[in-house]
Write a structure and sequence with these properties.
The protein has a five-stranded parallel beta sheet, with helices on both faces. It has one domain: Rossmann fold. The protein starts with 15 loop residues before the first strand and ends in a 9-residue tail after the last helix. The chain contains seven helices and five strands, in the order βαβαβαβααβαα. By secondary structure, the chain is of the alpha/beta class. It is globular, with a radius of gyration of 17 Å.
């Protein structure tokens, strides 16, 4: 795990919360919402063997811009298992939507990420974990649905000291879950999110420039159009 960065905890009032920050549009908005609600935010990102590593640089930019208390980047090797176009370069990233769960789905990714966030939240004494999943304008991933978030929250309260000792109920916060991409962008814009700092593309180049054709790029571009907000994305 990398050394923590960010401002000292004393500089940020409010209860602690762990926020999963990928470097994309949704997680940046989620982080801004957590801060707007008065939380002292501890950002957690993952180098998991993803092909779009430019998102980690974006995560650092977003965390710094939104003034988190700490930002940690954990290294885990989901590429060792493969099974996804995002972790296996022999699988092409599709350029047109397909039926069913797409090959860009990374098996168990959000389950693993939330488990790591849960561990950190116990150490911090945090009772809120924020994740920017969305079940409206999304790619159809099973671990972005309300049922998954609700189930993980139940499990978390069975598996933690705070939950068992009834100190406080741990909450998995998914504020974007029922919002359209346009609504997410409008909400983030109202909170001052600089979307030009973010990277959403599944196959962004080393400079973070987007391909403009993958599913994530399509959803992002359509979201800015529908939100009537200027798209700051750098395309190749």
């Amino acid at each position: 795990m990398n050394a923590p960065t960010g401002r000292a905890a004393a500089d940020t009032p409010g209860p602690p919360a762990v926020v999963l920050v990928s470097g994309g549009l949704d997680s940046a908005t989620c982080l801004a919402i957590a801060r707007a609600e008065g939380f002292a935010c501890y950002a957690l990102s993952f180098a998991y063997g993803q092909r779009h590593e430019a998102e980690l640089a974006a995560a650092r930019r977003v965390a710094a811009a939104l003034g988190v208390v700490q930002h940690r980047v954990m290294t885990i090797d989901l590429a060792a298992f493969g099974g996804s176009a995002l972790t296996d370069r022999s699988i092409a990233v599709p350029e047109t939507p397909s039926g069913g769960i797409p090959v860009t789905y990374v098996p168990a990714r959000n389950t693993i990420f939330l488990s790591m966030a849960l561990a950190w939240s116990e150490v911090l004494g945090a009772h809120d974990i924020f994740i920017g999943v969305n079940a409206v304008d999304y790619s159809g991933y099973p671990d972005c649905r309300p049922e998954f978030i609700e189930s993980f929250e139940r499990m978390a309260n069975l598996a933690t000291r705070a939950g068992v000792e009834h100190v406080a109920r741990l909450r998995i916060r998914a504020p974007l879950i029922s919002m359209s991409k346009a609504q997410i962008i409008q909400r983030g814009a109202s909170l001052g999110v600089e979307y030009g700092l973010t990277v959403s593309c599944y196959q962004a180049d080393a400079q973070g420039r987007a391909c403009g054709v993958c599913d994530s790029c399509r959803l992002r571009r359509e979201g800015f159009v529908a939100a009537c907000v200027t798209d700051p994305t750098a395309y190749r």
